[in-house]
Amino acid sequence: MGSHDAHYAGNLVDGARMLALFGDVATELLIRFDGDEGLFRAYESIEFLAPVFAGDYIEAYGKLVRAGKSSRSMEFEARKVVQPLPMDKGGLAVSSAEFLNKPIVVCRAKGTCVTPVELQRFKHKLNA
């Protein structure tokens, strides 16, 4: 997350930034599954589990869990994998960061996307 993503005091990043990442993941999943970007319809649940700050590196993951005629249910997870090191003892910012041995799950969500039937280029057996 860049400094431009910081929205609150202490360089805290707005949770909506995680949802933007999930939107990108959903687009990729739909292109791979249907050959079309589709549209995000709704989130069924969103859990913000840990804070995200400017300087953190986030990896976003998603999977398609159900496909109906045009709806696609997905699950998402965002994980912090790198975080900046704190300022030195003199209060100067350092450009060092640490790779986390165990990623921190910062957000989980479930959502539904829709790809209109006429835009689906790949035909799949439905598991609705």
Q: What does this protein look like?
A:
With 128 residues, the chain is mostly beta strands. It has one domain (3-119): Thiol Ester Dehydrase, Chain A. The protein contains one helix and six strands. The strands form two sheets. The protein has a four-stranded antiparallel beta sheet, covered by helices on one side. A two-stranded antiparallel sheet has the order 1-2. The longest helix is centred in the first third of the chain and has 19 residues, at 16-34. It is elongated, with a radius of gyration of 18 Å. The model has no long low-confidence stretch (mean pLDDT 89).
What are the salient characteristics of this protein?
four-stranded antiparallel β-sheet; mainly beta; elongated; Thiol Ester Dehydrase, Chain A; 1 helix; 128 residues; two-stranded antiparallel sheet
Strand-residue proportion = over 45%
In oligomeric terms, what are we looking at? single chain
Order of helices and strands: EEHEEEE
Q: Label the overall shape.
A: elongated
Major β-sheet strand ordering: 3-6-5-4
| CATH fold assignment | Thiol Ester Dehydrase, Chain A
- Radius of gyration (CA) equals 18 Å
**Level-1 CATH class name:** Alpha Beta
By DSSP, the count of extended strands is 6
The CATH architecture can be named as Roll
Main sheet: strands, sense, barrel:
4 strands, antiparallel
On the 0-100 scale, what is the average pLDDT? 89
Structural class by sheet pairing and helices: mainly beta
The end-to-end span amounts to: 37 Å
